[in-house]
UniProtKB/TrEMBL annotation:
Alphabetical list of CDD domains matching this protein: STAS_anti-anti-sigma_factors (cd07043)
Pfam families xref list: STAS
Domain STAS residue range list: 5-116
Recorded GO MF terms: anti-sigma factor antagonist activity
Protein name: Anti-sigma factor antagonist
InterPro entries registered for this protein in UniProt: Anti-sigma_ant (IPR003658), STAS_dom (IPR002645), STAS_dom_sf (IPR036513)
Amino acid sequence: MGEAVMTTRRQADGAIVVEVRGSLDAATVDALRTELAGTVQRERPVTLIVDLTFVVFMDSMGIGALVTGYHAAREVGTRFVLRNPSEFVHRQLRVTGLAEMFGLPPAPSGSQTFTT
């Protein structure tokens, strides 16, 4: 089981960025799920960005936490954005059939931001 570190900050445009580093698995996803849902409920940002640049591993539990965040954001009208998913994370979302829901292209092509 891995370790994940999350930092949350507000950008000048009002968007909130949750930067995730490390692994998203059974040992770490509760914190991510709580952070995403809590931020959406407390702050009601126009946009919530989940920066996955430094996520080195993600299993089905991590995917579930992203789906939970996506639905929590949609319920209050917040735009949910995945930023810079690694090739590994992108592949995990494609394999599970969720890439389209997150607005991901068929294959990663460098540093990108994906919105839904």
